[in-house]
Amino acid sequence: MQQYLDLLRKIRKDGIVKSDRTGTGTRSIFGYQMRFDLEAGFPLLTTKKVFLKGVIYELLWFLQGDTNIKYLLDHGVHIWDNDAYRYYNELCVRHGVLPLEREAFLDAVRREEPSSIDGYRPGDLNHVYGYQWRSWPRPDGGCIDQIRQVIDQIKHSPDSRRMLVSAWNVAEVDDMALPPCHVLFQFYVAGGRLSCQLYQRSADTFLGVPFNIASYALLTMMIAQECGLRPGDFVHTLGDAHLYLNHADQVAEQLSRTPRPLPTLRLNPAVRSVFDFRYEDFTLENYDPWPAIKAPMSF
């Protein structure tokens, strides 16, 4: 994962200090690209441990078209808890409702309790990634399953230049709990290999980017298996690539570490549809990362 460490160095060297919505401050560059050959190893960062369980469950959640965090909570994944609770509090203010404390709110999500806010179910995030991937709304009241559509294109029109999936729905983005950061991805077939390029408008380089790399690499591998192709390249294009100022010491520690060999991620070959994968269908081999680096949250 030298590509990732080079990005950290680039931001530290050339980044401009900017303000941000959290009030923390960032060091930022604009426009950067990394490329990972998925046949050379699974691009899971080795200079710190990455929460692969969270990567897998979140991706399966997206692919189900789900937008409620209950599925994640049921599997011990808490990466969307803060956004769900913040969104709930915003709705409470808007409707004049006294909000629950955070843990009481998460318990209500687990128990699928009804809400006093009309049309809201505890844990909902509104039309975030999974909804846009699987149920992009049409003007006539129908919807478009972008994932099924793009898989059909890969199988039947592999030279198409229209094999894209978008999460940035301009009409709905202001109503989402969190506007999508990874907004658009495109597939490309050549030489029996499936490649994917992601455009990410906003990239929290220390905390989020290693997670995003692993997620889209895995998605590419899953779709390649369904389509009878080998995994190709994952190309990661970043818009605002930033490091939060309170991550400076952790970034320095990570840059002092030597990358270790990439692991192998094996998919259950019996699974023939991306929608049929379960957590147990993924096996990580030879992953020997440096210890995790604790960092302050950036939101």
From TrEMBL:
Location within or outside the cell: Cytoplasm
Enzyme class name: transferase
GO cellular component: cytosol
Keywords: Cytoplasm, Methyltransferase, Nucleotide biosynthesis, Transferase
Residue positions of the active site: C181
Top-level taxon of the source organism: Bacteria
Main location: cytoplasm
PROSITE patterns cross-referenced by the UniProt entry: THYMIDYLATE_SYNTHASE (PS00091)
Residues the entry annotates as binding dUMP: R21, R161, R162, R201, S202, A203, D204, N212, H242, L243, Y244
Keyword S-adenosyl-L-methionine: no
Gene Ontology molecular function terms on file: thymidylate synthase activity
Record-linked Gene3D superfamilies: Thymidylate synthase/dCMP hydroxymethylase domain (3.30.572.10)
Enzyme Commission number(s) of this protein: 2.1.1.45
InterPro entries in UniProt: Thymidate_synth/dCMP_Mease (IPR045097), Thymidate_synth/dCMP_Mease_dom (IPR023451), Thymidate_synth/dCMP_Mease_sf (IPR036926), Thymidylate_synthase (IPR000398), Thymidylate_synthase_AS (IPR020940)
Pfam families attached to this UniProt entry: Thymidylat_synt
Reaction(s) this enzyme catalyzes, per UniProt: dUMP + (6R)-5,10-methylene-5,6,7,8-tetrahydrofolate = 7,8-dihydrofolate + dTMP
GO biological process: dTMP biosynthetic process; dTTP biosynthetic process; methylation; modified amino acid metabolic process
Family: Belongs to the thymidylate synthase family. Bacterial-type ThyA subfamily.
PANTHER family registered for this protein in UniProt: THYMIDYLATE SYNTHASE (PTHR11548:SF9), THYMIDYLATE SYNTHASE 1 (PTHR11548)
Function: Catalyzes the reductive methylation of 2'-deoxyuridine-5'-monophosphate (dUMP) to 2'-deoxythymidine-5'-monophosphate (dTMP) while utilizing 5,10-methylenetetrahydrofolate (mTHF) as the methyl donor and reductant in the reaction, yielding dihydrofolate (DHF) as a by-product. This enzymatic reaction provides an intracellular de novo source of dTMP, an essential precursor for DNA biosynthesis.
Protein name in the entry: Thymidylate synthase
Gene (name only): thyA
